[in-house]
Write a structure and sequence with these properties.
- The protein contains six helices and 54 strands.
- The strands form twelve sheets. The protein has a 22-stranded antiparallel β-barrel.
- By secondary structure, the protein is mainly beta.
């Protein structure tokens, strides 16, 4: 009993001591009342500003002035004595430090790499390895936005972070259940670029920083900074991923398959970045739910969350003007709209002149031919719309629409009485909708459906022959897909699904005199079943999948296994392995004799399992990632075979130019990237080695270098934040020139019947001179009002005005049939651009 009594005394003493140390907090409203009574004064304030604040009472022995100083030191509000009677309380011009820790709402684990931004300000940071962050000199009324890939973004007022006990605020983010793997590298090359665990790269246009030469976050220009992705002729419409042609890239916009990618015939991305919130680029190890695109997948997604207030923006540069707006109609209904239109029909800028010259240098519309009395009218536009409806927290419905258009009219006066008039229209429209359902904590589903239509139409009136040539290429595709997800636990997930696609294509050519008309139509129906399992825990990630494709027209089954594996070997070092088999049933045929005014030489064609077989790819890659102290080093080796390509798909300028044959290409290569990124600067250099060769058994020689065999390629860049609102970027590209074929010396042409052709030497046996381009950009942010953010950017492409030759071919000299004329296409000259943007 004595022992227990002393134990009780001890516990009582400890409790009393603890209570003495924990001075109780008093509501600020009570303290204000006490001060008013003690000093016979009156406070003027907004009740909401003080209602939630609790602090220790100031000592009763303090004077009124000392009491005000005490309150000013403890609270993110301004206490100001107007006279001996009245005191005002405000918080609009005071700033302080804020800190916090970001955690997962369910697991309570920290989220390192989460992005923390001050709205309407250039200040930002990322969370450290323990999920914590700290920002200095933050205005009390500022809005702090905290986001993390795969989680819902949260916004707070800075004053909510104020703490009188020096504790950092804990922020819990809720999983957004997006179909995206966790972020591996949150800041990759520039802000807004991120690397995910499955090896794909994510471009977040809302948070996009700055890249050399760009004044806008151009989606398809930006991804060319990644190793293994480039354009052999500087064209958006010709993106080459690991040695593949552009038509081998699967492009999805909100789950709608797109068949057109560029404005200005390839110099500008056709996808407005302001509503295109995320872009995921996958080069290998693709999920089993996707097929087509034997070289890559570029998946674009727009905003998918209903906001609580209207937001939007508008901008203009030397090529186009655009605007977008996101309008929440109710708490569960929103509509998002965007539009962009060229300004070339109102003003002729230096950027437009250089783009025009580059686009039409190798066409019937030659901007350099001053001898012709000609007039041209070129314009483009795109627009999007999206409706977001949440029936409840478990059922979401989305509907999308996109329209892309390029229009060209060209009139050439050959004499006083005759005019040659040509026109070209290129369009891609898409409609889509989806339903996302969460049936219980483990089972969810996603149903999507789309309609996509691509048209290119040309009318070419030839005055000298009094002949009208009309051409058309049309693609119509519909598709529906069902995904069913089952989560065994937070680390193990299963996906099963079914997809059906119907694709129809039309090619038509008509001549008025003498009359000639040919129309070809093809339709193909595809079914696919797919299943994959994904495991992700601590240091291990693996995704295994199988896709089974059935082509009803050919009664043919194709099995496509997929693997994506990543294992951390140490804290800094990880091993990655990726592999896939894929197929493609659409291709672009290049027809030099029957093109669209020379501006567009490609026509979409559907496979027939004979002359145009189903293209099939096999790809395997392995490598290592090393990450430490903001350094990121990647080394990847890959081996890729694509079988079922056609000679007419490659655009040969050699003796195989007009031959029909099926073959393959094999590309073996290495990709290397080293990147150092901090909150102040980012610098990188990447290197790609390719050994890319064709194999056409019916040709002699049967094996020769690929048209896209760019053996060595280097990109480099440096981004620097000069001040919080001023950023600078410098970077460039160096690579070997592409292969070309020259005529046989001394025997440059050959006669075949009544026709004369260039007599080419060994195919692709020579290379153009090396390509080099240096670009720079500068960006300045400022605010008109606390809610209106303004950005002014300037950029220069090809600062050194390097005259790069990007293509070379030969044609028979019309004056001397025994000789061949060398034709060179050149890269974009020094091209400045300026953009001004306002967001709210």
């Amino acid at each position: 009993m004595k022992c227990n009594r002393w134990l009780l005394y001890f516990l009582f003493a400890m409790s009393f001591s603890y209570a003495q140390q924990q001075t109780p907090k008093t509501p600020l409203t009570d303290i204000i009342q006490t001060i008013e009574q003690q000093f016979n004064v009156k406070f003027s304030y907004v009740v909401e500003d003080v209602a939630s604040i609790h602090i220790e009472k100031p000592a009763a022995t303090l004077t009124l002035q000392e009491t005000m100083e005490y309150l000013n030191s403890k609270i993110p509000l301004n206490f100001k004595l107007l006279d001996q009677r009245y005191i005002t309380i405000s918080g609009l011009d005071k700033s302080f430090s804020v800190c916090g820790v970001v955690l997962d709402e369910e697991s309570k684990t920290t989220l390192p790499g989460a992005s923390v931004r001050i709205s309407n300000n250039s200040k930002w940071t990322v969370c450290s390895k323990n999920g914590s962050f700290n920002l200095e000199d933050v205005a009390a009324d500022a809005t702090i936005s905290i986001s993390y890939i795969g989680y819902e973004t949260k916004n707070f007022k800075a004053k909510e972070f104020f703490s009188t006990n020096n504790k950092c605020k804990e922020i819990y983010l809720k999983s957004a259940k997006e179909e995206l793997n966790p972020v591996l590298i949150s800041l990759f090359l520039t802000s807004g670029l991120q690397k995910t665990t499955d090896g794909s790269t994510v471009l977040n246009t809302k948070k996009f920083g700055i890249l050399p030469g760009l004044t806008e976050p151009d989606i398809l220009q930006s991804i060319q900074t990644l190793p293994g992705i480039e354009s052999s002729n500087e064209s958006i419409a010709n993106i080459n991923v690991r040695g593949g042609t552009n038509d081998q890239n699967l492009m999805l916009w909100d789950n709608i398959k797109m068949y057109h990618s560029g404005h200005f015939f390839g110099l500008i991305s056709a996808y407005n970045p302001n509503l295109t919130q995320k872009v995921v680029v996958t080069k290998n190890g693709t999920s089993a739910e996707y097929s087509d695109g034997v070289s890559s997948m570029i998946k674009m997604s727009t905003n998918n969350e209903i906001k609580n207030k209207i937001s939007g923006g508008a901008g203009i540069n030397l090529i186009s003007a655009d605007a977008y707006i996101e309008i929440p109609l109710t708490k569960n209904l929103e509509i998002d709209l965007s539009a962009r239109h060229s300004i070339t029909d109102m003003v002729n800028t230096p950027a437009y002149s250089n783009y025009y010259k580059k686009s039409f240098q190798d066409s019937e519309i030659n901007a350099d031919n001053a001898a012709k009395n000609s007039d041209s009218d070129f314009s483009f536009y795109d627009y999007t719309a999206k409706i977001l409806f949440d029936l409840n927290e478990n059922h979401q419905f989305r509907a999308n629409f996109i329209g892309i258009n390029n229009a060209l009219n060209y009139a050439e006066n050959q004499n006083q009485n005759t005019t040659k008039t040509s026109s070209l229209s290129q369009k891609n429209t898409g409609y889509g909708g989806n339903w996302k359902a969460q049936w219980n904590s483990r089972l969810s589903s996603f149903v999507s459906s789309y309609f996509s239509r691509y048209n290119i139409d040309a009318r070419d009136y030839r005055v000298s022959e009094d002949q009208l040539l009309s051409e058309a290429n049309e693609v119509i595709e519909t598709g529906t897909k069902l995904n069913v997800y089952y989560d065994f636990n937070p680390n193990l997930k299963l996906l099963n699904g079914y997809q059906i696609n119907e694709t129809g294509m039309l090619n038509q050519t008509r001549v008025s005199a003498p009359f000639y008309s040919i129309t070809k139509k093809k339709v193909l129906l595809n079914h696919a079943f797919f299943s994959e399992i994904e495991y992700n825990k601590k240091n291990s990630y693996v995704r295994l999948g199988m896709r089974i494709n059935y082509f009803q027209k050919f009664d043919k089954l194709l099995f496509e296994p997929r693997i994506n594996f990543r294992q951390k070997l140490t804290k800094e070092l990880a091993l990655k392995v990726e592999g896939e088999l894929k197929n493609q049933t659409t291709t672009q045929i290049i027809d030099f004799e029957d093109d669209f005014l020379g501006v567009e030489k490609r026509r979409w064609q559907l496979v027939d399992n004979n002359e145009i077989p189903i293209a099939r790819s096999k790809q395997f890659s392995t490598g290592i990632d090393f990450n430490t102290n903001n350094w990121n080093i990647e080394l990847t080796g890959f081996y890729k075979i694509v079988d079922g390509i056609t000679a007419s798909n490659q655009g040969f300028y050699n003796n195989f130019q007009f031959k029909k044959a099926n073959g393959s290409y094999t590309n073996k290569g290495i990709e290397f990237l080293i990147n150092k990124t901090t909150t102040r600067y980012s610098t990188w250099i990447s290197y790609t080695f390719n050994n890319n060769n064709y194999n056409f058994k019916s040709f002699t020689p049967s094996t020769f270098p690929n048209n896209l065999d760019i053996r060595h390629s280097v990109t480099f860049g440096f981004n620097y934040t000069v001040y919080n609102n001023l950023k600078l970027s410098v970077g460039g590209i160096w690579r070997n020139g592409i292969p070309y074929t020259k005529p046989v010396e001394g025997n440059e042409t050959v006669q075949n019947g009544n026709n004369t052709f260039v007599n080419y030497d060994a195919p692709n046996s020579l290379n153009l001179d090396d390509f080099f381009r240096l670009d720079t950009s500068i960006s300045y942010h400022f605010n008109f009002t606390p809610t209106v953010k303004t950005t002014l950017r300037a950029g220069i492409i090809n600062v050194t005005n390097q005259n790069n030759t990007i293509n070379r071919y030969y044609k028979v000299d019309p004056d001397t049939s025994g000789k061949a004329i060398e034709i060179n296409n050149h890269s974009l000259a020094l091209t400045p651009n300026v953009s001004f943007r306002v967001n709210f």
